Backbone:
């Protein structure tokens, strides 16, 4: 789906059957077909899927032109269910199979949680309709989805909205995920991957993990064996001190040569929106994040804003975080984009 209108000094538009290609000066190139949108800037490239495994940035498509490294997981800013604390055991026989949430295991840990609405968007939505917004010094993509399954006594139809902004000359993108709820809950939250999981074999794709709520980076050797999300490296709001910054990332390295690459980090720009953050091993490093988990009434909304990208050092991450800190929303139009509180 394409949005007309281009407010840039230098541009041309080429159209072929089933494919739209846009070149803007030397900064942006956007191509679109039936399956995905591909974005290329002077600093990075990325793809956003329309079909199949959707939401966020497509796995292995996020490339840092400065170093040639790419993400090492299943995608970035990938979205799941709307959930709340508590068990679904009393009514599991009434649930859509996809909504059943098993706990007390190595995948999900011991904490009882349950799905309010589904499906898991990334695997079960199957198709979304992203829209491209082109601005003077950025390209943005927006998409949305209405949840279509729900737990007993709950309505379907809560709206998920995602915005991805790729600024000119940057090695990162800015994003936001927002839920407008049709149900009320004492502690509703959204689950997503932030920045994304890490595929590896004995740490061959990364050398260390950085979690801003831990004392120091964690060597990849800590992820050679599986462990549950609440066993190690878990952050839980209220139990743990609120960090000044909420940054989670991994230090890439070449699988063949072990050459070090940049850090790939995901930053949640308002730390107190995060209710729980996992970083555990389950065949891959699982970096799930949950945000919200506060009382909400039907018709209200909650959101979180992120910066996801490549960085050469922890100091650079901190500087970029501090530049954008304190925001939980993102507005975008052809005239510009801005983070909002």
Residues:
């Amino acid at each position: 789906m394409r949005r007309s209108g281009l407010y840039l000094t230098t541009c041309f538009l080429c159209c072929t059957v089933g494919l739209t290609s846009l070149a803007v000066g030397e900064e942006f190139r956007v191509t679109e077909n039936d399956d995905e949108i591909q974005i290329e800037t002077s600093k990075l490239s990325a793809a956003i899927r329309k079909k199949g495994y959707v939401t966020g940035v497509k796995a292995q498509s996020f490339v840092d032109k400065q170093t040639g490294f790419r993400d090492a997981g299943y995608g970035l800013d990938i979205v799941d269910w709307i959930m709340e604390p508590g068990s679904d055991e009393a009514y599991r026989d009434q649930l859509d199979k996809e909504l059943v949430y098993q706990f007390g295991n190595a995948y999900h840990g011991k904490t009882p949680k349950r799905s309010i609405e589904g499906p898991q968007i990334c695997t079960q939505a199957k198709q979304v309709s992203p829209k491209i917004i082109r601005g003077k010094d950025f390209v943005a993509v927006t998409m949305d989805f209405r949840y279509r399954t729900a737990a007993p006594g709950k309505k379907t139809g809560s709206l998920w909205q995602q915005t991805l902004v790729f600024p000119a000359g940057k090695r990162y993108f800015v994003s936001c995920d927002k839920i407008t709820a049709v149900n009320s809950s004492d502690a509703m939250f959204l689950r997503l991957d932030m920045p994304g999981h890490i595929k590896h074999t004995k740490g061959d794709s990364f050398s260390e993990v950085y979690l801003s709520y831990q004392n120091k980076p964690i060597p990849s050797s800590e992820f050679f064996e599986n462990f549950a999300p609440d066993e190690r490296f878990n952050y839980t709001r209220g139990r743990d001190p609120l960090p000044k910054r909420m940054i989670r990332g991994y230090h890439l390295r070449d699988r063949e040569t072990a050459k070090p690459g940049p850090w790939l980090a995901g930053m949640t720009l308002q730390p107190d929106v995060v209710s729980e953050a996992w970083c555990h091993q389950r065949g891959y490093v699982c970096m799930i994040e949950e945000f919200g988990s506060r009382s909400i009434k039907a018709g209200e909304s909650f959101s979180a804003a992120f910066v996801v990208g490549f960085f050469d050092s922890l100091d650079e991450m901190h500087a970029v975080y501090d530049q954008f800190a304190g925001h939980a929303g993102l507005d975008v139009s052809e005239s510009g984009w801005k983070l909002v509180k």
Observations:
- The chain has one domain: 79-340.
- The longest strand covers residues 301-311.
